[in-house]
Amino acid sequence: MAQELSIVVWAKDGCSYCKEVKEYLSEQNLDYQVIDVTNHDELRDILDIKYGVRHVPVVELGVNDQYQGVTEVGIEHLQEALNKVNKVIQQQV
User: Fold this and answer.
1) Quick check: pTM over 0.85?
2) DSSP string, 80-92
3) 86: Cβ contacts below 8 Å, ≥ 6 apart
4) Is 23 left (phi over 0), alpha (psi -120 to 50) or beta?
5) Would you say 81 and 70 are in contact if contact means Cβ atoms under 8 Å apart?
6) What are 5-20's pLDDT values in tens digits?
7) What is the CB-side half-sphere exposure of residue 17 using CA atoms within 13 A?
8) CB atoms within 10 A of CB 54
9) Hey, which bits of 1-93 come out as E strands?
10) Strand order in the sheet with 6-11
């Protein structure tokens, strides 16, 4: 059974890096969910617990309910992580 990729973007209003990530994912025709941390420090607390960061964007890529977080800023980091996840998905087919 083919596995589906789940993408969650942690972002905030006015963040140019967050906008860049969302535009890239849309250009790649990838569906994603956004968690808006604007004025929600409790959500940043979750990022701190999960990944040791409080900044956004953070992109979570999930397969089989197992997620990995891309915490580095820059599309190249997201591209690399997507390539790795897609290879895993293809191996499971």
Assistant:
1) yes
2) HHHHHHHHHHHHH
3) 5
4) alpha
5) yes
6) 999 999 999 999 999 9
7) 17
8) 14
9) 6-11, 33-36, 58-63, 66-70
10) 33-36, 6-11, 58-63, 66-70
